[in-house]
Prior knowledge:
The protein is α+β, with helices and mostly antiparallel strands.
Amino acid sequence: MTPLLERIERYYDAVPRRFARVEDCGPFTLFLGEPGGWVYYARPRLDGTAGAGGLDAVDVAAATGRLRHLGLPEVLEWVDETTPGLLAAVQHEGSLTVTELPLMVLDDAGEDHPSALPSGVRVRLLGPADEAAVAAGRAVSELAFGSAGTTRGEQGTRERDARLRPVQQRVLGLLAEGAVRMAVAESDAQGVLAAGRTLPIDGVTEVMGVATLPAARRAGLGTAVTRALVDDARALGVGTVFLTASSPEVARVYSRVGFRRVATAYSAEGRDRP
């Protein structure tokens, strides 16, 4: 494992420990969130138990079975270069749908100048007093990730507002601490149109959840939010900034911000069961 991938693996292990119970299951660590709340994943253990040749389909079935027993989503996540034997084990087990995700790290080789935003749109970081914008950003994310891709869609501000719900106080507390950093693109007329966040820990952070309201896509809003989060991470002195792109097309967008592909991440999720 390279030092870079080791830093990323430790980050993947550290972030959910703030919010979830932790349980070892063979060569996996299960991060157990609450049903209906913040839910995470099972990952190969950091102690090397899940190294090459150290797991098989039986281990995969045991981990997903435990998650299912607890009423949690059956989700495994890993980096192929770190745990090269896991993809074959998941495929042999056969009950999970696997998605390949480009793993990208910021190297500052992107465009020097940000693209212009549409008239009246601004990008800003949120704080604990921005409860309404936090709620809107969450609704934007739900709509965007439910309508994958980068093409414009029909869902707009009306659908966003229909999904608004109160923000948990612990989220506002994390914003106040600086443990969660959240940026939005918004206008006075339409409110929040795009959002994203980071969770810096020990000099590493992941840019995650960058999403644009489907009706507002193709205007550079997601790129602008990503740039704001990157600039914020730099200002905080974060040395390693990374992300996983949902597709090669999305990866090309991130490359313009300065990210380059360094590895392949996988997410495997349980299929609907009768």
